[in-house]
Amino acid sequence: MLILGIETSCDEASAAVVEDGVKIRSNIIYSQDEVHAKYGGVVPELASRKHIETIVPVVKEALEQAGITLKELDGIAVTAGPGLIGSLLVGLSLAKSLAYFQHIPYIGINHLEGHLTSIFLEEELSFPYIGMVVSGGHTNLYLVQGFGDYLLLGKTRDDAAGEAFDKVAKLLGLGYPGGVVIDRLAKDGDNQAFSFPRSMIKDESLDFSFSGIKTAVANFVKERGMEEVKKRLNDVAASFQQAVVEVLVSKAVRAARSRGVDKIVLSGGVASNSALRSLFKHSPEKENIKVYFPSPLLCTDNGAMIAGVGYRYLKEGKSSPLSLNARARWDLPTDPAE
């Protein structure tokens, strides 16, 4: 089966063609970083307008790179939520139009499910495993017991980890997207130079909170002054980053141990962070627990992960009606065909 995946949940426009749920024939991603950089974050109205301009060319390129035409598709999978409602509507409207025109089924996919199962595009894995989605909009922990079988174990109570990176980068005058810049600066810094709070790290709950560390950095800058902070920018970036990744690793390992699971799968944009990957690799906490990371391209929002999930459901004969609407909020577990 050849499935076209369309992803427009936030500011990336992506389309991909995936064969039989695992073979990526193409995966085109158009980034809007330049559009939103001067604002220090994603502007929803600008994101949806840009999607209108770019999604059709992106789909055309995905089909061309895969070496197929629309007539050869067996189905379409599209992100229906959660995300920015205007952005979601662009991708969903196109998917409905193409499915109707080609007389093929389409299915609305939960963006989080795409991230949780993106590892299957590169690895053969057995269930269960602990799935952690770490991005600009989400920091969630799940027990993944099978496709469509997800148990939420913990989530952020305020800012997502990626959101904290972006907000701290803005405080430090580093631009957008913040995670990439902080990660780069931190490589030349001392991650023990300054002590920032590890919120809820000792709390028995598997929830997260990152608003406190954002406030701590803001107070740090106010007390020291920006000129002084800039002299030790690498150390500040490294210390902040270390505080965040220690919490993420600690909670993920605790979740695995509490459920008797020996595998952790990370996904989402922050899963590309080099400090997070390094700490997971060398942490003595994770003894006898194997950690999996998708490649960086599959950590970001992408059409391939949506097509991969879509294949599983379309193969079972499930599809979505043309009346399906986009959802700004959409928790897992869920039925994709609703």
Which architecture name of the largest domain does CATH use? 2-Layer Sandwich
Low-confidence spans: pLDDT under 50, at least 5 residues? none
What assembly state would you assign to the polypeptide chains in this entry? single chain
Main β sheet profile: 5 strands, mixed
Question: Mean pLDDT, nearest integer?
Answer: 94
**CATH C-level name of the largest domain:** Alpha Beta
Provide the CATH topology of the largest domain. Answer: Nucleotidyltransferase, domain 5
Helical stretch tally: 12
Strand content: 15-25%
What is the rounded distance between the termini? 23 Å
Number of structural domains: 2
Strand tally, please?
10
CATH H-level homologous superfamily name of the largest domain: ATPase, nucleotide binding domain
- The shape is globular
Structural class: alpha/beta
User: Taking Cα atoms only, what radius of gyration do you get, to the nearest Å?
Assistant: 20 Å
Could you give the order of strands across the largest sheet?
3-2-1-4-5
